[in-house]
Design goal:
heterotrimer, A mainly alpha, B mainly alpha, C alpha/beta, A: mainly alpha, ABC transporter involved in vitamin B12 uptake, BtuC, two-stranded antiparallel sheet, 63% helix, C: alpha/beta, Rossmann fold, 6-stranded mixed beta sheet, 4-stranded antiparallel beta sheet
Chain lengths: 578, 307, 236
């Protein structure tokens, strides 16, 4: 591949720039011409239509202008842009043709764009792929307007993130599939694939633009700036998150998904304390979440509960957290002295025991408590004082469906968990955890009480999961053993790893991606776990520090020793956490 | 008493399956300190490989013994191929990486293989497995204790496999090299041992034994299921730890012990925690207790030697 | 042409360069010693020669052939044996099995004869031939490690700190063994912290400091060098 690539680059030589520019121009022309001959496909393929099926190639084609003024990294940025422009154009043309029922339905603009994208790609691949020497992040010139500009950039970036998220959520399935759907091996439905084409194009555009920004160093610059103003960043993020329900026009669908992402993310951030900070691999984390959920389900006045009682939610959340924390201590105290991989297996065993027990406490196989596989259902809506979370509201002239109440509650839970994480990671305890993660023996030698601190991390993670579980029980209104399987634990772990261990944004991004992509790409639904298995392997192979690494982790992972060929690391490197 | 003896026999049969799979965990762990989480899937693939051989490749009317041998070979081919691919592309690039990175990779491989079979192996789940060895044919072991033909076969092939492996590791030149690599990989290279090849050998041997177990389970239970590798895998790992991970005889001992404990707990645990519904829970309780109280296992010395 | 030539070798652990351009030669039949404090790069040099580590740049030639791209297990076959720092015997195998593994790359009947030769050299090992090597004393383990290295019939024997952690009597015995090996014409590359004993024995010595050769010359001359005496022989 690399050999073929370099010989191709030699053949194209200096013509690559010209070819890429020509292709880009052609692509620009193509993308402003009409693409489809029928109105069925997303947004009738108007230029500004949703999903970026045409705006995407246009934007990515404009990146080629970088070739006119050589900036560091521009060649690699254009390579990425041309690749993704071609992918989006190709996919869209396929989808138009497929949903229309033949190539006849593809209009001239699409063919021009496709040709342009191909030429653009061929030129792009001929460009020099070598990485420019890394330079420190640039900053704004030292001028009076610099500070407000930095604030604006910081706040603006969160606004853009919110817009992207809302826009992505808002893309509805087009439902133009033909009746005779083709199903490949019982898994991939071509109709579902077509319906999801628009979201896929949007996703590819996002990835493409993110790559371009990364390769030009823009992302590094931006994150350096936002890091300078954490308060502005947080405030903007809070405002954006709070404002989200007002953008939904009374539609509860996106709010429901956002609320679920919130729970998932809260659990992921909690797990990140255990895994990312303290380096304890917990493969049964969902069980603690389940303990909280069952506690809430049993004592909140559900008619199906075996305990007929109704404790106010403000107490339930603490009760659930406490019970989960207790389980954490009970499990952790005897097992935390085990080495990392053994601990992982113990937690896995605990998770399975929890699920089996919840399944069996149905009055038949065991004492009656959980209703077995049916679970505790009909959990009533949350009420705090006289405020019921089940009511719709009308506020500032906007309809707010009841899902908004739960959404905001999730945001509160998420903020609490995030705050706990951030405060801890900067504290003495957090540094002690990192020390334990790096080298437990050395940490113990410096006087750190490793057992107690590991137990603290473990119990704290369990407590937070329990609290999140109580909230989730009210959101989904039912607690069943099936919701707390090993796969759920694995998914949470994957969210942490994908995003980047040891960082809050990492867990957030990871949770969002893992939840949203299968939700939006229904053709992936059956294959979701398959893809997810491959993704885990690929991440560990190529980017073990995750999408948003903490700076120290990045160093850890890329500090490969001169003896990369050696079978084992020098003593002392064996134990520390991935 | 009769019940007890019968349950003992049942435990031995169950333990034979665990022991065969546990050998794969223990060999790989002994050499590269990796919990090859996906090894349970290798066992599952062995069962599916055998099923595929029977339903697709073999002509009708193949004599039973020949069919069984060919099914075993088919299962082994699938298992070994999968093991080789995962070693080469998932684990080998991670040598020298922090310890938990390969464990997470193993998790990914495990999920991937399970889903691959679930989505792409034709027909519904669980898949019926041909009953080539008549399960209603019972052998009496005296005192009205009985064992059915496929279960007896399971124990017999398991014992053969275990003895063969143990002899290979203790007597052969490659077996010696495996021991050396397990004890000190760098020094093993200084002796001229190609440790990469030794690691591959461990994966291959483990996969072959897991395939034996996969076929035996298919014959015993009459079905194979893409999900069957997960539980068996975790339990086999328990067995390996119970015996002392890295120790070949330990894996066998651990397998039988776990099988017997599981069966006995299911039978004799205090009400209401007895019965099939709690079977797996007991296996995990044993797992946790073993790791807490004797993490080096019954015969374990390797862990101490290499901590 | 020297038997072993190391040219401008650089080796790094991640970003940390342990060897910053070392060159040295070992001629056939010579005993060459590397001395220096902890972290000077002595062990790293040996590990790179035997292929356990890969250099960042520079080259290693054995009989004029490039060695730095050959895999560790192939290097043994070319005739280099390495008795590693800390002895690193296989603790769960018997003394005899350890010796047989030393001859892993060889085939044939001569192996049993060579095991006998090692036992002749170290009668203590003969007494313990069926004992697990992990139960041996430090000195016995060192004998075993040297014996195991000899089992590959090497043309170049590399010994890494053979006297480390041993009693004075054992140290004396080990150095007598090295002197004996020298007298039979074995080529030896010796890494030692016990500088006086090593230099007294060596044809050539190299003094390493933080990854560089700071001084080199015939062993006897280095032994007389004022700086060496101050820094490594504890005199002021």
């Amino acid at each position: 591949m690399t050999a073929a690539g370099s010989s191709y680059r030699r053949a194209v030589g200096s013509q690559a720039r010209v070819v890429a520019l020509a292709g880009a121009v052609l692509l620009v022309v193509g993308s402003v011409l009409p693409w489809a001959r029928f109105s069925g496909f997303p947004g009738k393929m108007t230029l500004a239509g949703p999903g970026g099926a045409r705006i995407g190639p246009l934007l990515l084609a404009l990146v080629a202008a970088l070739l006119l003024r050589q900036v560091p990294g521009s060649a690699r940025a254009v390579r990425a842009a041309s690749t993704f422009a071609f992918l989006i154009t190709g996919l869209t043309v396929f989808f138009i043709g497929y949903s229309g029922g033949g190539a006849d339905y593809v209009n001239a603009g699409a063919w021009v764009a496709l040709a342009g994208a191909l030429v653009y790609l061929l030129g792009g691949l001929g460009l020099d792929p070598s990485r420019p020497a890394s330079s420190p992040p640039r900053s704004l010139p030292d001028a009076p307007w610099a500070l407000p500009a930095e604030w604006l950039l910081t706040a603006g970036s969160t606004a853009v993130a919110l817009y992207v998220f809302v826009h992505g959520l808002g893309i509805q399935s087009a439902n133009v599939g033909r009746p005779n759907d083709v199903v490949i091996r019982g898994a991939i439905s071509i109709n579902a694939l077509t319906n999801d084409g628009e979201f896929l194009a949007f996703l590819l555009l996002l990835i493409g633009l993110a790559l371009v920004a990364t390769r030009l160093g823009l992302l590094a610059d931006l994150s350096a700036i936002t890091k300078k103003h954490p308060t502005v960043f947080l405030a903007a993020g809070m405002i954006a998150a709070t404002a989200f329900p007002f953008t939904q026009n009374g539609n509860g669908y996106a709010l429901r998904i956002a609320a679920s992402i919130g729970v998932f993310a809260a659990a992921a951030v909690g797990l990140n304390i255990v895994v990312g900070l303290a380096g304890l691999l917990d493969l049964g984390y969902i069980a603690f979440f389940g303990v909280g959920a069952y506690v809430a389900a049993l004592v909140s006045g559900s008619v199906t509960s075996t305990i007929h009682t109704h404790i106010p939610f403000v107490f339930v959340i603490f009760l659930g957290a406490a019970v989960a924390g207790l389980f954490g201590i009970l499990l952790g105290a005897p097992t935390l002295r085990l080495r990392g991989d053994y601990l992982a297996i113990v937690t896995l065993g605990f998770g399975e025991i929890f699920r089996i027990t919840a399944n069996n406490l149905d009055g038949n196989s065991g004492p009656s408590l959980t209703n077995g596989p049916n679970g505790v259902s009909n959990i009533p809506d949350l009420t705090i004082g006289s405020f019921s979370f089940g009511d719709n509201h009308h506020f500032l002239g906007v309809d707010l469906p009841f899902q908004a109440n739960y959404y905001w509650l999730e945001i509160v839970v998420l903020v609490v968990v995030m705050t706990a994480f951030l405060r801890l990671s900067e504290s003495r305890i957090g540094r002690a955890w990192v020390a334990i993660r790096e080298d437990e023996l050395a940490a113990a030698a410096t006087g750190i009480n490793t057992t107690r601190l590991k137990l603290l991390a473990f119990a704290l993670g369990a407590t937070l999961a329990g609290a999140a579980g109580t909230v989730d029980a009210h959101v989904v209104k039912v607690a069943t053993p099936d919701s707390f399987t090993f796969l759920e634990s694995a998914l949470l772990l994957a969210a942490v790893i994908l995003g980047g261990m040891g960082t809050v944004p990492g867990a957030l991004v990871g949770a969002t991606i893992l939840y949203l992509i299968p939700e939006k790409l229904r053709f992936l639904q059956d294959l979701r776990l398959l893809v997810f298995g491959v993704v885990l392997v690929l991440i560990m192979r190529f980017r073990p520090e995750g999408l948003i690494p903490s700076s120290r982790r990045k160093r850890e992972f890329h500090d490969d020793s001169g003896g990369a060929d050696a079978l084992s690391m020098p003593p002392g490197h064996g134990e520390h956490m991935a | 008493m009769q019940t007890f003896l019968q349950q003992l026999v049942n435990g031995v049969v169950l333990g034979a399956t665990y022991g065969l799979v546990a050998l794969g965990y223990t060999m790989v762990y002994g050499i590269v300190q990796l919990i090859n989480f996906a090894h349970g899937e290798i066992y599952m693939l062995g069962g599916f490989g055998a099923l595929f051989t029977y339903t697709v490749l073999l002509p009708g009317g193949t004599p039973v013994v020949l069919a069984l041998v060919l099914m075993l070979l088919g299962g082994m081919v699938v298992s070994i191929t999968a093991a080789l691919l995962m070693e080469r592309f998932a684990y080998r690039p991670l040598r020298g990486a922090p310890r938990l990175a390969p464990l997470i990779t193993a998790l990914g491989v495990s999920i991937f293989l399970q889903e691959l079979v679930r989505n792409f192996y034709p027909a519904k789940s669980p898949r019926p497995f041909p009953q080539l060895v008549d399960p209603s044919h019972q052998f009496s072991l005296g005192a009205s204790v009985e064992i059915s033909a496929p279960r007896l076969l399971t124990v017999v092939v398991a014992v053969i496999g275990m003895v063969a492996l143990s002899t290979f590791v203790r007597r052969s030149r490659t077996g010696r090299a495996m021991q050396a690599t397990a004890q000190d990989p760098d020094t093993a290279r200084l002796m001229g041992i190609d440790t990469d090849r030794i690691i591959v050998t461990a994966f291959v041997l483990g996969a072959a034994l897991a395939a034996v177990s996969g076929l035996a389970s298919g014959l015993q239970f009459g079905t194979v299921d893409p999900r069957m590798g997960f539980l068996t895998g975790v339990k086999a790992f328990t067995a390996a730890v119970l015996g002392g991970i890295g120790n070949i005889s330990g894996a066998v001992l651990g397998g039988f012990t776990l099988g017997i404990v599981e069966v006995m707990a299911t039978q004799y645990a205090p009400d209401p925690f007895s019965g099939g519904a709690w079977k797996d829970a007991w296996a995990f309780v044993v797992l946790i207790l073993v790791l807490v109280f004797r993490p080096s296992g019954l015969l374990g010395e390797r862990v101490a030697a290499r901590a | 042409m020297s038997m072993l030539e190391v040219r401008d070798l650089r080796v790094a652990y991640g970003a940390i360069e342990a060897i910053k351009g070392i060159s040295l030669d070992v001629d056939e039949g010579q005993v060459v010693t590397l001395i220096g404090t902890n972290g000077a790069g002595k062990t790293t040099t040996l590990r790179t020669v035997s292929g356990l580590l890969r250099p960042v740049s520079g080259e290693i030639l054995f009989d004029g052939q490039r060695l730095d791209t050959v895999k560790a297990h192939e290097i043994v076959k070319q005739g280099i044996a390495h008795s590693p720092e800390g002895r690193r015997i296989f603790p769960l195998m018997t003394v005899e099995e350890n010796l047989e593994l030393g001859a892993y790359t060889r085939k044939g009947d001569s192996i049993a004869k060579d095991v006998g030769a090692v036992f002749d050299r170290f009668p203590r090992l003969l007494e313990r031939r069926a004992q697990k090597a992990g139960t041996l004393s430090g000195g016995e383990q060192q004998m075993l490690a040297i014996g195991r290295a000899l089992m590959s019939s090497p043309r170049l024997l590399m010994l890494d700190e053979p006297s480390m952690g041993l009693s004075p009597i054992m140290i004396q015995l080990i150095f007598e063994t090295i002197a004996e090996l020298k007298s039979t014409g074995t080529t030896i590359l010796l890494v030692e912290q016990n500088a006086s004993a090593a230099l007294a024995l060596a044809d050539v010595g190299y003094v390493l400091e933080t990854g560089r050769v700071v001084l080199s010359g015939p062993g006897k001359e280095l032994l007389k060098d004022e700086n060496v005496r101050k820094a490594y022989l504890g005199e002021d």
